[in-house]
Amino acid sequence: MTSPFHPTNWSQACVSWIHEIQIAFDPPAPVEPGTGGFLHVMRWGSSRVAILVLLSFTLHCTRPPAYLSSAQLGSGSRAASADARAYVEEGMASWYGGDDDGFAGRPTASGEIFDPEQYTCAHRTLPLGSFVEVENLENHKRAVLRVNDRGPFVKDRILDLSKRGARDLGLLGKGTSRIRLSSVDAMGLPVALDPAATQADPYVVQVASLSDPKNIETLARELESAFGIVTLQNATTLNGLSVKRVRVGSYTTRQDAERAAEQIAKLLKDRGVEPFITRQR
Question: Do 229 and 168 belong to one domain?
């Protein structure tokens, strides 16, 4: 059944209304030929006025809504025009959840069990539970995913997609691609990040993942004397090795975390350490 608000119905309504105007302007009795007067002028003019009004309303009512395609909008313009405060980031993305990588069925940072066939992803700092629209900048395919995990813990990568997300974006064969992500709501509309989420889950600087207890203790003591709070997070590598993630601080702003990461990198520059910013959870 066609909606009463469909443009076709609007057009029919306009035609009916114009028809009623014509009837209303018709004189109750015909004017004899050759006579003038007010009724003759009204009869002569009403049909012409009705035609002009009909054309105007028809053009307006039958014109379809102006929807822009992704190509017309251009990369990233939708987020910028709808909400300039939306978080936007570009970089390299990879994916996880393959048959032999061991991630399927393991708990994510959010506590959920990882299912490679769900539209989820891992990001180092975006609030857990938030949504992002991801665009593959190489083929312009897009997908909306929910952040439920932390990662990738690989240099120069900003996002790890689930297998399902990677399939939709065309990453499965190649493995990696340059992407643009922007923060959206559950309907895929651009939205700013929730500031309360940052307060609830502060930034930390992850310095290293170590398995040797002596090395862990030595590094933790050195960092604690220079930067204060040091925390250790249990983790398991893909080959089943148990490690401790050595982390520094609890920062409410990313700027503070970035300054700490720069200082740590200078302190440990001769040890091949590359600190990066993530969240406590």
Answer: no
